[in-house]
Structures are given as structure tokens and as C-alpha cells.
Amino acid sequence: MARTQFEELEVYQLAERIADAVWEIVSGWSEFPRRTVGSQLVRSADSIGANIAEGTGRGTYKENKRFVRIARGSLNETKHWLRRAWRRNLLTDEQVDTLKPMTDELAPRLNAYLRSIGKTSRANTTDEA
Q1: pTM for the whole structure
Q2: CATH H-level, domain 7-116: superfamily
Q3: Are the CB atoms for 71 and 15 separated by under 8 Å?
């Protein structure tokens, strides 16, 4: 499959790494935690990258920014579900040590990406959010 523009974004690649790590962890849980907390956790983690991707395809800076803000919300939701998983003893210390730096890094990267949208050599005053 050919790579598209969003796949080249470092912020998207980090979101993908988080989603893949979450998937690998949750797939090892027993049925009840996987069906409850795990399902929500996987959906929210997958949603981060999905919204970055969707935003790049929307055609306007304003729409792209809107989807990056949604991705930021999905990151916060992912952090919530990770906290629930930790409190319910579903995550090991090693898994937390893997996920926490990635989620901590993604928030400022999303903010930086949001600030960068629309800053090109082309003048764009009507689409800025």
C-alpha cells in the first residue's frame, strides 16, 4: 500500500506506535477486562491517529485543526483508560514504562502540529482557526 501524506508525519507515527502497543497489551488480557476497559482503550488509542489522518484529508486548514483537536481529546481519553487499567492491575510496571513516555510526548507534539497547520508560503486567512 502506498504511503499517503499523513503517514509521513512524526506525530502520526507516534500515535501509531501508541495504538500498536496498546493493542498488543490488551490482546493479552482475559475476556472481561478486554471486553470492557480494553475495548475502550483500543478505540481511543486508535482514534488519535485516525483523526490526524482524517484531518489531513479534509482539504482546509480549519478542518485539519478541528480533527487535531479531536485527536488531542482521544489522547486524553486514552490516558484515562490507561489509568483505569493501571488501577485495576491490568498493566505491568514495564508496560507503563513503555506507554507513559509515548503518551507524554504525544501531547506537546499534537499541540506543535496544531500550531503549524496553515503556516506555509501560501497566504491563508480565511481557513485559519
Answers
A1: 0.88
A2: 23S rRNA-intervening sequence (1.20.1440.60)
A3: yes
